[in-house]
Amino acid sequence: MTKRNLENERIKRAYFNYLRDAKGKDETTLDKVAAAIMRYEQTTGFKSFKQFNPEHAGRFKKHMAKAKTERTGTPLAKATIDAILRMVKAFIEWLACQNGYKSRISYTDAAYFNNNAKDARVAHARREIPYPSMEQCDHAFSQMPSATLIEKRNRAGFALLMLTGARDSALTSLRLKHVDLIEKQVSQDAREVRTKNSKTFYTWFFPVDEMYLACFTEWVTMQRKDMLFGPDDAVFPKPKIEVVKDVGFQTTGLTGEIYANANAFREIIKGAFVNAGIRPFVPHSFRKTLVKFGDRICGTREQFKAWSMNLGHDSIDTTLTSYLQISVERQGELIKALK
């Protein structure tokens, strides 16, 4: 059984309440913070936080430098280590202001959790994110089977991803009432859809190949008319698993329920590329594909601003910085080509 310090547990609970109620952090973030602080406690032998010593921070950083991932056994990424150190540092800063702790811990003690400059630069370096070309997406989609109900659903999910560029967590939590086929629009309502930072916005279908719209329209129409799904049923529903006599567990249809997370959808999208003989791409990479496509076909800044808003970005700078980086070589080519 994992050793715990009850005094530490009480103050951690107060910190989590602070993050949730005062800072508006969601449960996923709280879980990551809890895991980071637990890692730190393990290296101190679960000593009381009141016994903080700079040596504890040094020992923790050395431990993190040698830590490995549970799933693959490979060393933790520099970015992961940096994020964990920052979460523990933020906790120590908060702790230094709490009664019973501020006489034991100073605000500046948190600085001992700073990453070294070299590793911090590596952790925050911007990297080129692999993304599929429009042609690769078209080919992978055309190779997806559509004989069974599950295969039709998977194909429609790929199509919706191309039409909206929605984040996978949002796409897998969409319900039929959020889809307007007449206006060719999806309402990403944060009250029910798992959007980033709980932001509500509208997405009109991007002008991609007509086969995507045809596939998605056929799927939603079938859900509403043939399967008799209602407004609150999922666009991308979970399968219905039942026990069939002399066979065992079998997929017998769709439940209408939304998935708890986007893991299954990510595997479906990656599998579509692998099946087509292409390296696997994750759903999020489609956003860069669509930004690159939009950059080609948008003729004015106003059009590109609308394209950016369609992806849920308030500022066009977010779109340009995150998805449309220009290499130094390309920078030179563009400048030389100007007349």
Secondary structure topology:
Blueprint lengths: L5 H16 L5 H18 L9 H13 L11 H18 L21 H8 L9 H9 L6 H16 L3 H4 L7 E2 L4 E4 L12 E4 L5 H16 L13 E6 L3 E7 L8 H13 L9 H13 L3 H10 L5 H8 L4 H10 L2
Helix pairs in contact: 1-2, 2-3, 2-4, 4-5, 6-10, 7-9
What labels describe this entry?
339 residues; mainly alpha; hpI Integrase, Chain A; 2 domains; 3-stranded antiparallel beta sheet; two-stranded antiparallel ribbon; 14 helices; 5 strands
Give a written overview of the molecule:
Helices cover 51% and strands 7% of the residues. It has 339 residues and is mainly α. The protein folds into 2 domains: 6-124; 134-284, Orthogonal Bundle (hpI Integrase, Chain A), CATH 1.10.443. Strands 1-2-3 form a 3-stranded antiparallel beta sheet, with no helix packed on it. Strands 4-5 form a two-stranded antiparallel sheet. A hairpin with a 3-residue loop joins strand 4 (239-244) and strand 5.
Strand adjacency order, main sheet = 1-2-3
Measured by DSSP, the beta-strand proportion falls in 5-15%
Number of helices: 14
CATH-level-4 superfamily name of the largest domain = Intergrase catalytic core
Q: Which sequence of SSEs, written as H and E, runs from N to C?
A: HHHHHHHHEEEHEEHHHHH
CATH class wording of the largest domain: Mainly Alpha
CATH architecture of the largest domain: Orthogonal Bundle
Low-confidence stretches: none
- Report the end-to-end length measured between terminal Cα atoms: 71 Å
